[in-house]
Specification:
Blueprint lengths: L6 E2 L16 E7 L2 E10 L7 E7 L7 E3 H7 L7 E3 L4 E3 L2 E3 L8 E3 L1 H4 L2 E6 L4 E6 L5 H8 L15 E5 L1 E3 L2 E8 L2 E8 L5 E3 L9 E3 L8 E5 L2 E3 L2 E3 L2 E5 L11 E4 L7 E5 L4 E5 L3 H13 L3 E4 L2 E4 L19 E5 L2 E2 H9 L3 H13 L5 E5 L6 E5 L5
Helix pairs in contact: 5-6
Length: about 375
Amino acid sequence: MVAAIVILALAARHSQRSLRLKPNELLLRRADPDFVVDLDISPEGAPKQSRRLSFLVSESIPKSKITADALKRLQANPGDSLGIQGFEAKFTPELEPPSSDGSSGVLGADVLDRFALGFDLDELKLSYWPARALDDQGIRSWFANQPAWPTLGSTHRGINAVPISRTKEGLAVAMTIGGEPANMLLTTAAAGTVWWRGPIPSNQSVPLTIPGLKVDRALAWKADLGDVNMPWLVLDLASPEPGHPSLNGSISLSTFPSRRVLLDLPAAKVYFEALPTHAKASLALRPLIGLPVFLQRGRLCLGEWTTASPAPSGADNLQDSEITRLGDLPGIRVAGAAEHPSLASANLLARLYRQRASKAVVEVTTQADQLKYNFEVPPIR
């Protein structure tokens, strides 16, 4: 075997995003913990005053909001009705203080509840359809636009449907975490699942605590979303959030065991791809490792670089290459642990997670020429 060691810089290159959008599509951006979209907004009846403004997407906010600066740009006043080009929706947002993330406001439930929303979490695109405009065939067609998973044939197209309940505290989905029922707030946030109700049983989870990291986390290996098993679930541990007495925590769309999630708010259902265990385990590994990995025949491999996971500089050609070592662990051992959830497997994955704090190195062996490359794992966020 010819071996060549190349150190790749961690600085992520600018991702080449597809700008070929359909009429009902928008590009998403991450402004952790939320998604942001750019919208053409105008005062009602004054389309020539339209301005391109950035709005956070947050179903958990009951009423949309806008900053005074954005209203000034629109030549509008507080309480004026505004329109969104493309959405064909009118809304009257509340005034909010300037945002630290630079956004012009928040698109809340008063607007979003009128639509079905399709989130492509790899390509960071948002599709939208008016209430009741999306039938079963339309749902299947949207999911069929992209392969469900790299190692699955194009004919694999199972879809899970989980009911959403509407409560005074927001949208909720039923889960089982650590063997116990959990009623979870469903959010359109870009990242994170949060647990508010004290410790998870120690025989169902392990801590992911790192000195200096502000957030305490745990890794659970007994979780179900509706009746769909999730091999692993990373949880941020937090104090109970005021205003949510009946909820155990919150789950974001990015935690779902699927690369695409369709939130049909008028029909009160959430749809996501039905994937086999190795694919769901692969998705669960990604926030732990910080790389777009997938499991294949007991091996751990690098998946495709996407808009959400751009390639480190010079690593474009490593797609589908086997990860032979992660930190001090053989890749094959990490793959075995990921596919067989247990206390021992959880401790091994927690060990790997902690190594990311000390700049763990990934060793990759390319499939074609058997060359070896090293690069550092992206830091924990």
